[in-house]
Amino acid sequence: MSWDYKRGESLEKFIDRTIRPPTDFEDRVNHTIDQLVGYLHWMPGYSIQDVVKSGSLGKGTSILSDADADLVVFFSGYGNIFSLIGHKPNIIRDVRK
């Protein structure tokens, strides 16, 4: 990736070339998120209340050098945060499967 400004290049073109993720990035990430959310909702033994995009993707401020997807998963069925934290190793294990 070149951070050099090209002579005659508009600021918009410079930003597209050096900062913004590729135009299909959001479509690809959203497709992957949809697949993951579908899996989470059907994951045996868990009840998912909601999955929310957060971070730069959620705010629409992703940049090329650091583009990723941050998700917040809201689990149902836990009486308090300590119960959820106690099950965290199992949740992580099961999601990785």
UniProtKB/TrEMBL annotation:
Instruction: Tell me the protein's name.
Output: Polymerase nucleotidyl transferase domain-containing protein
- Taxonomically, which superkingdom? Eukaryota
Q: Record's InterPro entries?
A: NT_sf
Q: Name one GO molecular function term.
A: double-stranded RNA binding
SUPFAM superfamilies given for it?
Nucleotidyltransferase
Species assigned in the record: Patella caerulea
Q: Which GO terms describe its biological process?
A: defense response to virus; negative regulation of viral genome replication
Question: What GO cellular component term, any one, is given?
Answer: membrane
